[in-house]
Amino acid sequence: INLVFVDASGERREVSSVEGRSLMEAASLSGIPGIDADCGGACACATCQVYVDADWLSRLPPIGESESNMLEFAANRHESSRLACQIKLTPELDGLTVTTPEFQF
Ligand code: FES
């Protein structure tokens, strides 16, 4: 499953990962900067926020209530914000492109 992370300065990094991992795990295993993930994926910190590309937003499973509530604590929440730890990788998400924020808080 190929993923594209664009950082706040516009630099693209392509990584590949496997089904069942979360987007946050894929990012940290590949050393993607800009995702702190302080809580380790428990949907309890909001420091794994990413901005999902418009093309992909509607193709993700809808945002969960706890994810949405936690995003209220995120810095600079956008319409396209999601928590990377709550996005499970599936083959349908091959090519998923997200931007990482400059700061997580
Ligand atoms: Fe903490 Fe995602 S890693 S909310």
- Compute the number of structural domains: 1
Number of helical runs? Answer: 3
Mean residue pLDDT: 96
Helix residue percentage: 10-25%
Computed Rg: 12 Å
**Major β-sheet, in short?**
5 strands, mixed
CATH topology name, in short, is Ubiquitin-like (UB roll)
Question: Span from first to last CA?
Answer: 29 Å
Strand segment count: 5
Strand content: 15-25%
Instruction: Output the helix-strand order.
Output: EEHEHHEE
CATH homologous superfamily grouping: Beta-grasp domain
Reported CATH architecture: Roll
Shape, principal axes of CA atoms: globular
Catalogue the ligands: FE2/S2 (inorganic) cluster
CATH class: Alpha Beta
* Alpha-beta content class: alpha+beta
Spatial arrangement of strands, main beta sheet: 2-1-5-3-4
Low-confidence stretches: none
Protein name: 2Fe-2S ferredoxin-type domain-containing protein
Organism: Ciceribacter naphthalenivorans
Keywords: 2Fe-2S, Iron, Iron-sulfur, Metal-binding
Family: Belongs to the adrenodoxin/putidaredoxin family.
Describe the structure.
This protein has 105 residues and is α+β, with helices and mostly antiparallel strands. The chain has a single domain (2-99), classed as Roll (Ubiquitin-like (UB roll)), CATH 3.10.20. The chain is 17% helix and 20% strand. It is built from three helices and five strands; from the N terminus they run ββαβααββ. The protein has helices spanning 23-29, 54-57, 65-71; strands at 2-6, 12-16, 49-52, 81-83, 96-99. The protein has a five-stranded mixed sheet. The longest helix is centred in the first third of the chain and has 7 residues, at 23-29. The protein is globular and about 30 Å long. The N and C termini lie far apart (29 Å). The model has no long low-confidence stretch (mean pLDDT 96). FE2/S2 (inorganic) cluster binds at residues 24, 37-39, 41-48, 70, 83, 85.
